Amino acid sequence: MIDLHNETVCSLAEATTHLPKRRAGKRPHVSCLYRWAQNGVRGIKLETIQVGGTLCTSLEALQRFCERLTNPTTQRSRPTRTRTRQLQSAERELAAAGL
To answer: How confident is the prediction along the chain (99 residues), in pLDDT tens digits per residue?
Structure first.
């Protein structure tokens, strides 16, 4: 979780300047960071915080995001669609049973 007092907070647009160049020598587009925050990469999402009308992250959150992607022992896998449906079905059954 991003801590406003202890982390260097920046907008997603500003955060792109802190990332290394990738394909064709260009930095990731701001929409890439939005996708990382909303959808994640291999089940890992970029931490963000809403500051007024601006979606922000921190340099430390970028570091944590990259470390989680790099270190295979901390990667979380997303459940498959079938597994998600099974979990939802089980939750409905439990709710119908009053549990």
So the answer is: 898 899 999 999 999 999 999 889 999 999 999 999 999 998 899 999 999 999 999 999 999 999 999 986 655 566 678 888 888 999 999 999 887
Strand partners, 58: 9
Please tell me the number of Cα atoms within 13 Å of 75 on its side-chain side.
12
Residue 36 to residue 75: CA distance in whole angstroms? 15
58 vs 38, 50, 78, CA distance in Å?
A: 16, 12, 24
Residue ranges per structural domain of the chain: 9-96
- Residue whose entry in the numeric block shows the structure tokens 């997603």: 12
